Amino acid sequence: MSTNITWLGHNAWLVETAGKSILLDPFLNDSPTSPVKAENVKADVILLSHGHGDHLGDTVAIAKRTDATVITNFEVGEWLKRQGVAADKVIGMNPGGGCAQPFGHVKFTTAQHSSSMPDGSYGGVPGGFVLKLAEARIYFACDTALFLDMKLIGSGGLDLAVLPIGDLFTMGPDDSIDAIKLLNPKRVAPCHYNTWPPIAQDAAEWANNVRSHTAAEPVVLQPGEKIVL
Ligand SMILES: [Zn+2]
After folding, report:
1. Are 114 and 169 contacting, i.e. CB atoms less than 8 angstroms apart?
2. 1 CA distance to ligand 1 centroid (A)?
3. Which of the 8 DSSP states describes residue 106?
4. Helices (H), 38-195
5. Residue 223's pLDDT is what?
């Protein structure tokens, strides 16, 4: 068995593992770079890092159509229920918490960011995710600044870290190099860049810096391309 991790643009990812489809931050129909439409994706589980529209995206519609379980922070989970997502399909967590799933274990990690819902209501604490799968351990930092506790997140060993490099709303390329040094993953993939001009970055230059300054192998994808672990 292998695990496929496909970039759907911005911070949207599809992880296919153990016969399950796991969507992260499915901002698809309004994304300038998504290769897929929300109507066409499969999902058994949706991971949602925080309430901002470029992450919440099509979560409500996909969850209702697919009956997927949504794993997110507590307040976003309560908001999703108010939008009609089935209460028994929402798992609300807080940083440090985790839950067992049929494909492995999901942990909600700290992120240095903000969170609010499109209607202005409180969006709880933003986070990232560590997935412990049969084949691999994967960290999705999601929207965050660099923080020193990344050392702890990496201490169990990471096969892949996915980091934002767009700057402005999240860490930029330079801070991501320090993040990689703290996390020490085998491979690292960038995201949350080139979606719009304010977060444009040169991923090839970033990859060169990763090779020069860290022990990780950079993997730069185009939307629609995947990593196989
Ligand atoms: Zn974002």
Report:
1. no
2. 32
3. E
4. 53-56, 59-66, 74-82, 150-154, 173-183
5. 98
Q: 133-157 pLDDT, tens per residue?
A: 998 999 999 999 999 999 999 999 9
The whole-angstrom separation of Cα 185 and Cα 183 is: 6
* Cα 148 to Cα 218: distance, rounded to the nearest angstrom: 21
Please state whether 84 falls in left (phi above 0), alpha (psi between -120 and 50) or beta: left
146 C-alpha to center of ligand 1: Å? 15
| Assessment of whether the complete model's pTM goes beyond 0.90 | yes
Instruction: Assign 1 a pLDDT band (cuts: 50, 70, 90).
Output: confident
Ligand 1 center–CA 30 separation, angstroms: 13
For residue 101, the surrounding DSSP H or E stretch is strand 98-101
Q: Is 37 buried (19+), middle (13-18) or exposed (0-12) by CB count in 10 A? A: exposed
Dihedral of CA atoms 16, 19, 25, 30 in degrees, nearest 10, equals 80
Query: Which pLDDT score is estimated for 135?
Result: 85
Q: How far is the CA of 190 from the centre of ligand 1 (A)?
A: 13
Buried b (16+ CB within 10 A) or exposed e, 157-186: ebbbbbbbbbbebbbbbebbbebbebbbbe
Judge whether 36 and 26 are in contact, CB under 8 Å.
Answer: no
Find the 54 Cα to ligand 1 centroid distance in Å: 5
**pLDDT, tens digit, 9 for 90 and up, residues 85-137:** 999 999 999 999 999 999 999 999 999 999 999 999 999 999 999 999 998 99
| Average confidence score pLDDT of the chain | 97
CA of 202 to the centre of ligand 1 (A): 18
